[in-house]
Amino acid sequence: MNIGDGLRRTATQYPDKVGIIDRFAKFTTVTQYTWKEFNEQVNRFANALTSLGLKKGERMGIYSETRSQFAIAQHAFFKLGVVLIPLNTAYIGEELVHMINDSEPMAMVVDADRKSEINKIRDKIPSVKFVIGIGPDHGFDYDFDTLRREQPVDEPDVEVGMDDLSCLLYTSGTTGAPKGAMMTQGNWVFTSILLSAEWRIFARHRFLCPLAPFFSGGVMFATLAAFRGMTLIMCNWDTEKIMRVIQDDKVSYTMMAPAMTSMIVKHPKVKEHDFSSMERIITSAAPISPALLREASKIFGDVYTFTYGTSETGLAGCQLYPEDVALEGPLSQRIASVGKAMMGMRVDLVDDDGNPVPIEKGQRGELVVTGPTVGNAYWKRPDAVDLKDGKWYSGDIGEYDEDGYIYIVDRKKDMILSGGANIYPREIEDVLYAHPAVMHCAVVGIPNEQWGESVKGFVVLREGAAVTEKELIEFCREHLAEYKKPRAIEFRDKLPMNPSGKILKRVLRDDAWKGQERRV
């Protein structure tokens, strides 16, 4: 079995069912495809690539937004055994040059909005032999729509196996330079089957993908939809637009990082929209605070499912089922939990020597994920020890409760060491999020001559809200030990985030330590 088999099966079983809806709706006159139509477009583009000389095992990049053309190109690559390289659309200049030269794609698909960025660096990316443009006036070597129109709808005659490399999925870089996780066809096949079961997704569901396509979720959802036959709605992130799409397209499933959830539930027009079609919101990418979850549940209802996974694991890992947690009562303590290992996966907490710690209340260790969805290694990084031989060392510190549920305490690199005490920013952030004036927040350690590090919070306020630094620090003091409270609060209009909704603490921390020695 390979990824293409899943799409072929769905196109046969659900030929007239709407498969892809493009709510980005830019550079296209077609805003939706049935599964039969989508499969034909994929085949046309795959055959076009073959005519251009692209062969199995070669690499090809995509530098574009969340649109149907991305999904068509992605599945064409998978059917040909061509290695997909989703390029971060936030990257420009030398950042983009580094990613392209690290992955060395033979060719690229680029949308017209990004033609200037590619033209600026064209002479610095020697591996790229030609570029296929999406949209009008792109000026590249070939045109995406023209290539498709001139090709037959026949299935490409290429043998692709489970162990063949399918994509280089570059990590989002919250803790350093992005590295390309090597994901096979089999990784995505197993992930599609596993998440269909764990998330309880069926063909009748309408899944909204508001995530940038180079994020693991963007690639995963297009693959999962093709396997399961659900309708995939692709849309760029704009809070008001997303609320309107959920209402008008009667979205039943979606995934949102906590920051995205916060943007919706704290939007001044949120109560003007109907979210009654929503059956499940999968939250991932970062821990969600109990305060934000309670506020979100008043808007969406009891629809949240908690997943722990990442690019290197194909989004699979741990799962907390809705029946395992509640907003009130004894089960409310599990709000902060990521649950237990998914079916077919193994998740251990290990000590500094790599040995699993006992599954007992209070035991802590680094989360290590093993299973058929986990990538084998990082591209060109044989020295990397955090992803090797199908085992991913997360860098997250976890803790067991009395029932064996796992809680993320914090990131190893985010931990603040102040006067010999270990302080975990997640605990402080949960308190800050409980304040009604706070929209987004992040806590990092900053230099302190006496204690080594001290706690500083960065806060974005809700629209129209007002609170002082002194009031927020006092609010923290009421809920935390004295040594844990922030010594300073800085208000900002926005916090640095990657497109998947993760707050980039590394950027905040590096700014604070500029010119000074600091721990890694």
Q: How are the elements arranged and paired?
A:
Blueprint: H1 3-13, E1 18-22, E2 32-34, H2 35-51, E3 59-63, H3 68-80, E4 83-86, H4 93-103, E5 107-111, H5 115-121, E6 130-134, E7 142-143, H6 144-149, E8 165-170, E9 180-184, H7 185-198, E10 206-209, H8 216-228, E11 231-234, H9 239-248, E12 253-256, H10 258-265, E13 280-283, H11 290-300, E14 304-308, E15 318-320, E16 337-341, E17 346-350, E18 364-370, E19 387-388, E20 391-400, E21 406-411, E22 416-418, E23 421-423, H12 425-433, E24 438-448, E25 452-461, H13 469-477, E26 488-491, H14 505-512
Parallel strand pairs: 1-11, 3-4, 3-5, 5-6, 6-7, 10-11, 10-12, 12-13, 13-14, 25-26
Antiparallel strand pairs: 1-2, 8-9, 14-15, 15-16, 16-21, 17-18, 18-20, 19-20, 20-21, 22-23, 24-25
Helix pairs in contact: 1-2, 1-3, 1-8, 2-3, 7-8, 10-11
Q: Brief description of this entry?
A:
With 520 residues, the chain is α/β, with parallel strands linked by helices. The chain is 28% helix and 25% strand.
